[in-house]
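FAQ: What does a multi-protein file look like?

Like this. Sequence, then tokens, then the next protein.
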Amino acid sequence: MSVKKWMLILVGLIFILTILIPTDSSAVPAFARRNKISCSTCHAPFPKLKPYGDEFAGSGFIIKENEKERDYITAGDDLLWLNREFPLAARFDAYTIYDQDNPVEADLQIPWGLKLLSGGTLYKNIGYYFYFYMSERGEIAGIEDAYIHFDNIFGSPIDVMVGQFQTSDPLMKRELRLTFEDYELYKPKIGISQTNLTYDRGVMLVYGIEKTGTDLIGIIVNGNGKGEAGNDKKFDNDSFKNFGFRLAQGIGDHFSIGGFVYTGQEKLMGEDEIKNQVTYWGPDFNVTAGPIELTGEYLVRKDTNPYFKFQDEEVETRCMIAEIVVSPQLDRSRFYFTALYNKIDSDLNVYDYQTATLSGTYLLSRNLRFTTEFTRDLENDANRLVLGLITAY
């Protein structure tokens, strides 16, 4: 074994021994600090949400029974709800990585990411949320999630989110995963297309039918991501808008199925007649059985002309993902285990991707966790080992 591999193992062991020394941790993230509740009320473990955490987020980050006038500055104005203390939190991710399929096999990615988060109440049934990546993979990534959430508009079961979010959020939320390995099916941009299912600017509408356990979600977005405004000060680079729709149906307390469709057009600047039609469709499901949660999704993407040639050249990309999370003691667990499978099979082989991941998480405190993860790249016959430390405060 080479010297650098031995050095990586030594650093990893020191890293593990150091963080396993018991310490007191008094820091808590913004929502727990604001509402004086444990992080475990919403997360198991963070950032993965429990059902109550989903409900809290779906209510615009408001616990209505806890909202009291003394927590706000109203100045005698019934239409003013200013937070007495501005809610602010931070997240720090650090990783030690051995990647067999990388020219630099051993890498200390410390920190991999550092971001500031804020969220809370604007007024009664109106909340906000945003975070700013001060450093992500060594660069200032800027604002990612940033939106205003209107809950139960006019007393109806309709929620509206306005701002910047991931188009895949109604499916599997990338920001809430427990693994270093990503949910890859949402990320590819085929050819020179600017469209995928990650961050975009737009509006999301959610309609919940409590009696039947049905959720209807509609999305309208620019379709070209979250890039900077162009020379004309416009964020969208064409007049088209993209539309998405998801139907999710709960069956009992432990099973749900859903379907997702998304479509839109795009064109190159100055080439009005050359267009690419992007369409996604696919089913998904989620099932929980005691300490085991299984989520699966199959997604097909079709591009009619991803290289914007004068003659259409259709490309189909088929994606699937399966994830199992095991919580031996349910939401009181300190150990969690995750198995994740990613597969992308495209007519353009350059986008093919297939990995299998096994990950273990140990909760050192409610807002500090250690992870160890092994990923096998089945496409390139390579391995990756990750040791991680993630905290929020």
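And here is the next protein:
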Amino acid sequence: MKIAIMGFGTVGSGAYESAKAAGGIEVVKILARHGREGYEYLNEIITPDIDDIAGDPEIELVVESMGGVEPAKEYVLKCLRAGKHVVTPNKNLISACYSELMEEAAANGVKLRFTSAVGGGIPWLFNLLRTKRCDEILQVRGIVNGTCNYILDAMYDKGADFGEMLKIAQEIGYAEADPSADIEGTDTLRKTVISTNLAFDTAIQEEDVLCYGIDTIQACDIAYLKEKGLACKLMMKAEKKAGAIEVYVEPTAFSADSLEANVKLNNNLITLTAKNIGTQSFYGQGAGMMPTGQSVIQDVIDIRDGKEQNVGGKGVSSLKADNSNAVHRYYIRHDRMCEHMEPLVDTYEERDGIYYCISKPLPVEKMHEMGHHRKEKGREMFFAALDE
């Protein structure tokens, strides 16, 4: 099979190396503005022009690893309309444009695959879809952002400050120069949208997902939770309840002996619960050149070999996102005990002018609203759901 790769950064080069190792796959064009160090021998197949790929009848499949929504969306649509299969690890694109792209692929008789978009090298979406063929998915949840997990794990082990560990994560390449998508939870939110839509055959949008990241966490939060036998992780969760889907992203405090608490470094842990099979968890590298690149080429091989994948997730289910009934207790840290907070708190401790609280059961919507309101007012709080 002759393929092209659009974007030749970390994932694109990983896909190239994995294609070579797999055999039977020939990369004949690479869309890039310039060559890459160490790959000078590929300069003759590099082009900056999408039409060199979309207009080449020999190219059967295109890997899109550019990232972002535009121009990736424009280029993917052009390739689909030209009758070419597309494989992409681009969570931004799939989260924002899933239904439109799937409809375009179907209209042109080609495949769109993206099992590397969540979990990198972990076969998460592959196994989620496989389980769904003969079972009913009840819940998906997990740690799906390696940058946040690296920071939280290091803060827990070393007692380090958030800013210090974020800087180190940037220096070693785990975090971008602008880390906001990771630490504010947006990256996790996009992976939540994709996982939820596939699990429940629905078509929720990014705006349907409540989201609060770890950008307001401090070393004192980690220390207090650790003292109570708890460890904090940034979690996604989507659960079928009462004819709707509760779906949100938030920091969560787990018992120190739980699976989630013991996910180290930049690893991911993603879990499904199904009606018959029960609970299954998938652990491993959630990003990186070879883990993600290999996952991309697994999709390429499946398409080449004619292996079907019942993706679903096009809104065929009547289930909608509804967080109005989602309730649990929270750890909350803030700088004063104001009147509107007191009725919400079960217990609290005051240490050096900081209030550490355990709330009564609170609506998730209300907790997120309070957190974002405090951010907007410049009086940041941190909260973490208690896994009980």
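Q: Is there any per-entry metadata?
A: Some entries carry free-text notes. For the entry above: DSSP finds twelve helices and 18 strands in the chain.
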